[in-house]
């Protein structure tokens, strides 16, 4: 599945992220490490990828107005969201 396909549909993106979080846990990564990786991914997406749907647009707007700590919170919340999916 290509990155553009994953990012087009928010549910697909959540499943993709949930799979990656699951893999990271199986590899023994800690919650903090996973959250830090989610923050790095969020930073990359913010800089390089235009939102493809309404949910991504809202996340980008929140990311853009947040400071670094708030962005880390958004990243942690995304991890928690996909863990519940």
UniProtKB/TrEMBL annotation:
Pfam name, any one: DUF3243
Full protein name: DUF3243 domain-containing protein
Species the sequence originates in: Paenibacillus soyae
């Amino acid at each position: 599945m290509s990155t553009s396909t994953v990012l087009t549909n928010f549910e697909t993106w959540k499943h993709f992220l949930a799979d990656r979080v699951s893999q990271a846990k199986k590899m023994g990564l800690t919650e903090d490490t996973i959250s830090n990786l989610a923050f790095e991914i969020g930073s990359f997406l913010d800089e390089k990828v235009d939102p493809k749907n309404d949910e991504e647009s809202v996340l980008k707007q929140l990311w853009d107005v947040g400071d670094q700590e708030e962005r880390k919170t958004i990243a942690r919340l995304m991890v928690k969201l996909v863990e519940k999916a």
